[in-house]
Amino acid sequence: MAEKTISEVSPTACGQFRKGSAALEKANWDYAIEILKELLRQEPGFFDARMALHAAQIKKGQSAGLFKKALGVAGNTQLIARGQLALRNNPVEALRIAEEILEHDPSTHLGHRLLADAAMALNMPRTAIASLEAMRKAHPDDKKICLQIAALLEKVNEAHQAEAMLKQLCRIYPDDQKLYEELKNISARITMQVGGYNEMTQEEGAYRTVLRNEAETVALEQESLHHKPVDTLDMMIDKSYTKLTEEPDNLRHAIEIARLYVQKKEFDRALEYYRYALEKGIADAHIDRAIYDTQIAKLNHAISSLDSASPDRAAEMERLNAERATFILDDCKRRMEKYPTDMTIRHELGQLYFKAGQFAEAIHEFQRAQTNPGTRLTAMYFLGQCFAHRGMHDIAIRTFRNAIREKLVFDEEKKDLHYFLGCELEKTNKEEEAIEQFKYIYELEIGYRDVSAKVDAYYAKIDAQGAPGTPPP
Description:
There is one protein chain. This protein is mainly alpha-helical. Among the domains are: 140-193; 219-311, Serine Threonine Protein Phosphatase 5, Tetratricopeptide repeat; 369-465, Alpha Horseshoe (Serine Threonine Protein Phosphatase 5, Tetratricopeptide repeat), CATH 1.25.40. The chain is built from 24 helices and no strands. It has helices spanning 11-25, 29-42, 47-63, 66-89, 91-104, 109-121, 125-138, 143-155, 159-172, 177-192, 197-202, 214-223, 230-246, 252-263, 267-279, 285-304, 313-338, 343-355, 359-369, 376-389, 393-406, 412-427, 431-442, 451-465. The longest helix has 26 residues, at 313-338. The radius of gyration is 26 Å and the shape is globular.
């Protein structure tokens, strides 16, 4: 079952979604849930509607009394059993039951697990990721959950995000060799995506078709499953080099050699082969990214290899960190010049300018990036921040308000927008308008940033002043 966005559903479904979202904005939780549940019965793959439903469930749960919550949790036992049974033969029904469980208890691990399993059975990866992320929020270091999320991220073409998640897991569990193997495998697959260029274009990117036969495919996959000592890496480099000399036009072999040299930590040799592929006429943003990652790995390796007993260690580390920051910015500028229509790179450059405190330059990049639907809302968020840092509070307020209007689902991104809008309103002495933004978040997540302190201080101030129109005792 294909997942759908708001642009892919019928006009009728789109109208129902907007009606449900409007009810959500007005805090009419029951009506929003009713509309969105009915919409999902008709369009179970409608991702945006499901996220809006979850937001309504959470808000309704926060407003429920303890007794009502206890009744809901108690009633979930039979639903969970029914859901597990439905999962075997009717995952669409399992989805519906999972939503019923979450309506009673929006944070239940079992409800999100059922929903994630049903979504995976229906090939709905983004839906599964959303529930797994809800589970990870309660158990951030759970390896099983994180590995499932990483696998699904790769499935929705977010391999670099999956790679970052695995790197974080490896830092948490430094002795788990299986995690390192998974990380190496996904890094290899990212590299493979830029190999076999002509064949991949003609045969829809299936990297197995690049290889001569099934036996070679299996051999390559098996080689990637194990940690390779230096002598094994040397053998694999020699093998790939022989293939490159036999098939000089098949630049997949050059990319493979570069990847192997990275594993050997011979970064300069790796860069030679990546650049060789570029010189042969491959204009591919993924190879540029591989070169970037290799340069960063080289600098990180140099930093981690500094002698802790050396008196020059601090100065050398400062120099290397500065070199890394300069390289990151310069490389992004170069890629932007090479791919001027790639709004993802332009958005990345804007973030680097923002981090460096170059807000005027960042504004220029984010204004361009907001023309792309994929980067529009985050670009508007950063634009608001840039205007705020430059003291242009009225423009920042207008930018945040525009982004909030366009962001239909109340997720982490929308919380940030409401929060920073509230902060800007505070700076312009619009206390009542500001507190409404903080209260909107407070109703959903009391632990978000310092909204609890802000809301508590506001009500304490009201109590100290006395409610308007209240006679003195």
